Amino acid sequence: GTQTAVCSRCGDNRTETIPALGHSYGQVIVTKGATCLEDGSQTSTCSRCSDVLTEVIPAKGHDLVPTAGGEYECANERNPGGESLLAVTTPMRDGYLAVKAQDGHRAPYAYQNAASAQRHVSDLVRSVLESAGGLLNYTITTIRFTPPTETVDGEYIYRVTIRSAGRAAASSITTEPLRMVIPAGSGADPDPVPDGGKVVCDFLAKAPSSSMFTISGNYSTSKGSATYDGKTYGTCLKMESATSISFTASKDMKMTLVFGDAETGSIKVNGTKLTSATSQLSTDIAAGQVTLTKANACNLFLIILE
Question: N or C terminus: which one in the chain shows less Cβ crowding within 10 Å?
Fold first, then answer.
């Protein structure tokens, strides 16, 4: 505000600034309670100007406590009778805590698109789940992507759903929203095919683990498994009539497709049908656009380029 004083001797006016008082927010009212998975909200009103301040109440996350049966249940999610609505195995609990511990992770690049950010998170989640042990699959759901600027960090907000691949009727557990910080900067995202390197694309997150692939199709965790290089994979892409995989090979490469262990491989590469007597199919591809489509019904677990 302002105030003015007048000199009694000469009539001169002097105007002074009255510093702003600042808001004085009163009682906090919870308008939406936070749950294990969803943020809540609360408001408070300024007694001076009636401005309403709205704040986020962070999701609580699961409070997993041991059960008499040797598993874990969420103490926050119970029915009116007191029974838990969520029970998970020890490997799933360990995997959940390992993934949660990555909240606030700082990315190594100034990612400019959500697909590249998700690919990095997928690699991170895969690594920590392998360290936690147990046969686990996962799915990453993007909530929000804010790209960085030259001077301001961006962020990638996501959830991870972890599933037990070792059960016929797999249970699952989903994290609260997690955050990856994307450092300030600009430029092209890193090449998914390093010079002289090898790309191994799986579908554990029910999405391609490499951002160089564009895929239209359905995934499944109930079509058996595939073993490659001593590791077992349990999530596949179903090769159906509407399934399509496309990517651009920056140079001539060898492509290996890994199908279910009990299957024989078949695929159409740019419209040409290829088959194999085993569960692995290898072929040379030329630099340029490559499209893979169904030849016979089968289940694809891995794509390897080298």
Answer: N
Q: What are the tokens at 200?
A: 């191994």
Residue 104 identity (one-letter amino acid): G
Give the tens place of pLDDT for each residue, 111-166: 998 888 888 898 888 888 888 776 777 888 899 999 999 999 999 999 999 887 65
Residue 147: C-alpha distances to residues 142, 181, 187, 192 (Å): 14, 10, 12, 19
Q: For 221-234, give one letter per residue: b (16+ CB within 10 A) or e.
A: bebbbbebeeeebb
Q: What are phi and psi of 128, to 5 degrees?
A: -70, -30
Both structure tokens of 225? 């498994």
Q: What digits encode the pLDDT tens for the residues 42-64?
A: 999 999 999 999 999 999 999 99
Half-sphere exposure of 76 (CA within 13 A, CB side): 12
240-249 residue pLDDT tens: 999 999 988 8
- Longest CA–CA span in the chain (Å) reads 109
The rounded distance, in Å, linking the Cα atoms of 224 and 165 is 10
Question: Cα dist. 27→21, 30, 45 in Å?
Answer: 19, 10, 7
SS3 146: strand
Residue 124 phi, psi (nearest 5): -65, -45
